[in-house]
Structure formats: structure tokens, C-alpha cells
Design brief:
The chain has helices spanning about 50-60, 80-90, 105-115, 130-135, 140-155, 175-180, 210-220, 285-290, 295-305, 315, 330; strands at about 10-15, 65-70, 95-100, 120-125, 160-165, 190-195, 225, 235-240, 245-250, 265, 270-275, 285. The protein is an alpha/beta fold and about 325 residues long. The protein has a single domain (about 10-330), classed as Aldolase class I (TIM Barrel, Alpha-Beta Barrel). A 12-stranded mixed sheet has the order 7-8-9-6-5-4-3-2-1-10-11-12. Helix 1 packs parallel to helix 2 (about 80-90). The radius of gyration is 19 Å and the shape is globular. The two termini are about 25 Å apart. About 45% of the residues are buried. The structure holds S-adenosylmethionine and iron/sulfur cluster (2 copies).
Length: about 325
């Protein structure tokens, strides 16, 4: 098994399949930055499904077992079920998941599940149209996202997880509504601390609502008890409602960072690998891929990158890379 400079194995891969999105969440792709003039990756610079499949096979040989498709909005990529089928068929890949804004999930869930998708996470920061419009900065009905969540459940992509990023002044007043909407449904809401990813969201510490604050707000309404992680090193901290009506999670990336458990590599839509969400640069694999590199040569390249990895940005926050132009989350894959 391949280990990095801090002894962490390579275990999961996040694949960004596009840098485009139909939403404009202020913490991710603020509209004033991602406007009409924003230049997205041209089609020929984006990895094809064949290229992604080949890389996944190489990564699987190095220890990767879990793959998550993300973006940008992954469902903007046509025929994503074809990619899912290719990835799911790779030997040693035991779990294929996707993170989506859910806007078109209702019409894709069945095909994705049939192709081999195991699980889906739907990002949703509010359950009423007004707050949702404020968060995602689009005129899009929450009901359509909820239909997507239902379709995912019907297709067996369960338990459906709901990612809710909490940002002060944006949706912190509606945490209880969100928790309430998914109690008793079997879906698991995971509240995520607002992170300083990228350089365009004008992140400020004062806008972070900590996991402890989120938990206190919910526990005030419905008492909570902690539950054990699903596996050692799981980054989400799990809680269940004392009245037995379900489970929630908190991801305390800012207040209680978990870099020591980070076994994740990211592949951008244009074929570079990044060893941290807060990376300032990646390593290109597309050129070698397209200029005839053998699998052994790719293995050598990836091995060198992972073995040199010493990232622990969240634990060092306020440290070295603050102020440097970090890669945007929509590009690197959230
Ligand atoms: N478009 C898809 C979606 O929204 O689910 C996939 C890509 S999105 C970049 C992946 C996840 O990153 C989403 O759950 C989103 O809420 C989260 N995210 C984006 N920017 C964030 C930030 N600044 N802090 C915390 N989470 C963030
Ligand atoms: Fe799009 Fe997802 Fe970023 Fe929102 S979080 S802008 S849905 S990529
Ligand atoms: Fe992993 Fe980087 Fe996040 Fe730490 S800051 S958990 S190393 S992605």
C-alpha cells in the first residue's frame, strides 16, 4: 500500500468531471466571479470517460477503493451513467458515489443506480425557496431538488446524504428547518462548516458556524446522542435523535480538522491530481496520458506525488498558504 510522507494511505479518489455548474452558491462559485466572462475549460482539455477509466484503473492498483464523482455539477456531463459503469467495473473499486446539487437527479437516478452507482450525496443549503435562492443564487425550486432526493431513494441510492454548508447570515437561522425536513425520512443531513476553499468566496472566520454551535441549535429542539463512526477515521461525526427519528452528521473541517485521517486524492476535470483541497497547484496527468505514457509510468508519477504529500492545511490554517491563490472547489472537485 502506498503511504504519504505523514503515513497516510491512498484510499479514495474524487473525480471532478466538469468545472461548470448551473448554480452559483456564494461560497463556491460567486456570480460576480463566475459571470458571462468566466472562461471554462474547453472540451478538448477535459478528460474523456476512457481517460478517466484508465486513470481509475491505475489508482485502483495503488490502493484506491472508493471513487466519488463531483464537479462543478457532475450531472451537467452527458451520459454520466456511462462513466459510472466504467468506474464500477474496475477491479478493487468497491464504492462509487456522487455529489450533486440534485437539480437534474430526478431524471437520472435510476440510470445511475443501474449503471452501478452505490450512493449519492445531494447538496442542499435550505428547504424554503427564499433561503435557497439566497444560498444557491439561482431561481430554482427546492421542490425539484427534493424530487431528485426521492428518486435517489427509490433507485436504492441509500442512505441518501444531504450536504448542508452552514454560513453565518446566509442559512444559520434555518438549520432546524433543514434538520426537521429530513427527520423521519431515513436521509442523513450532514452539516458542514463553511471552509476557506479557493480564493473567490471572500471567506472570513466570523462567517463560520462551528459544528458545536450547529449541534447545540439542533439539540435544543431534538436531543441528540453521539454514535460511533461507521469506520475508523470517518471524518463526519455522527449523532442520532434521542427519539429514534434518524441521524445527522457534522463535518468540522475548520474547528476540528481531520487531516491526519485524510486519505483522499483529487483529479480535476482537466486531468491534474491534487493532494489537498487547499492545494495551490496540481500535477498534470493528461499530457503523459495523451502522449503515450504506459501504466507503469503513470504509476511512477502518482507514487512520487503521493509519497511526497505532507499537506495538512486545515490543521495549519493561518499558516503558510493563506493568501496564495488556492484552486477553486468547483475546479478541483468538492
Ligand atoms: N455541484 C455539486 C454539489 O454542489 O453537490 C458537487 C460539487 S460541490 C463543489 C461539492 C460540495 O462542496 C458541496 O456539498 C458544496 O456544498 C461543498 N462546498 C463548496 N464550497 C464550499 C465551502 N466554501 N465550504 C464548505 N463546503 C463547500
Ligand atoms: Fe455548483 Fe456545487 Fe459549487 Fe453550488 S457547491 S456552485 S452546486 S459546484
Ligand atoms: Fe485533507 Fe487537505 Fe482537507 Fe487536511 S486540509 S483534510 S489534508 S484535503
Amino acid at each position: 500500500m502506498l503511504h504519504d510522507a505523514l503515513g497516510r494511505p491512498l484510499h479514495d479518489l474524487r473525480v471532478s468531471v466538469t468545472d461548470r455548474c448551473n448554480f452559483r452558491c456564494a461560497y463556491c462559485m460567486p456570480r460576480d466571479v463566475y459571470d458571462r466572462d468566466h472562461v471554462y475549460l474547453p472540451r478538448d482539455e477535459i478528460l474523456t470517460f476512457e481517460e478517466i477509466e484508465r486513470l481509475v484503473r491505475v489508482f485502483a492498483g495503488l490502493g484506491v477503493e472508493k471513487v466519488r464523482l463531483t464537479g462543478g455539477e457532475p450531472l451537467l456531463r452527458h451520459d454520466l451513467d456511462d462513466l459510472v459503469a466504467r468506474v464500477a467495473a474496475v477491479e478493487r473499486i468497491s464504492d462509487v458515489a456522487m455529489t450533486t446539487n440534485g437539480s437534474t437527479l430526478a431524471r437520472h437516478a435510476t440510470a445511475l443506480a443501474e449503471a452501478g452507482l452505490d450512493r449519492v450525496t445531494v447538496s442542499l443549503d435550505a428547504v424554503d425557496d427564499t433561503s435557497f435562492r439566497g444560498a444557491a443564487d439561482v431561481d430554482f425550486p427546492v421542490a425539484r431538488v427534493l424530487e431528485g432526493i426521492d428518486a435517489a431513494k427509490d433507485a436504492g441510492l441509500t442512505p441518501v446524504k444531504i450536504n448542508t454548508v452552514v454560513r453565518r447570515g446566509l442559512n444559520d437561522e434555518t438549520i432546524v428547518d433543514i434538520a426537521g425536513a429530513f427527520r423521519e425520512t431515513g436521509h442523513i443531513v450532514r452539516f458542514i462548516e463553511y471552509m476557506d476553499v479557493g480564493s473567490s468566496n471572500d471567506w472570513k472566520m466570523k462567517d463560520v458556524v462551528t459544528a458545536d454551535q450547529i449541534l447545540a441549535t439542533i439539540a435544543d429542539e431534538w436531543p441528540l446522542d453521539p454514535i460511533d463512526p461507521n469506520y475508523p477515521g470517518e471524518v463526519v461525526r455522527r449523532w442520532r435523535y434521542r427519539d429514534g427519528q434518524g441521524e445527522i452528521g457534522v463535518i468540522a473541517s475548520v474547528s476540528k480538522p481531520f487531516c491526519g485521517e485524510c486519505t483522499r486524492l483529487r483529479l480535476s476535470a482537466d486531468g491534474s491530481i491534487y493532494t489537498c483541497l487547499f492545494a495551490t497547484q496540481g500535477t498534470d496527468l493528461r499530457d503523459p496520458l495523451r502522449s503515450g505514457a504506459t501504466d507503469e509510468e503513470l504509476v511512477e508519477l502518482i507514487t512520487a506525488v503521493w509519497q511526497a504529500r505532507s499537506d495538512r492545511y486545515s490543521e495549519e490554517r493561518t499558516g503558510v498558504s493563506l493568501g496564495l491563490p488556492k484552486v477553486e472547489m468547483s475546479f478541483i472537485g468538492g
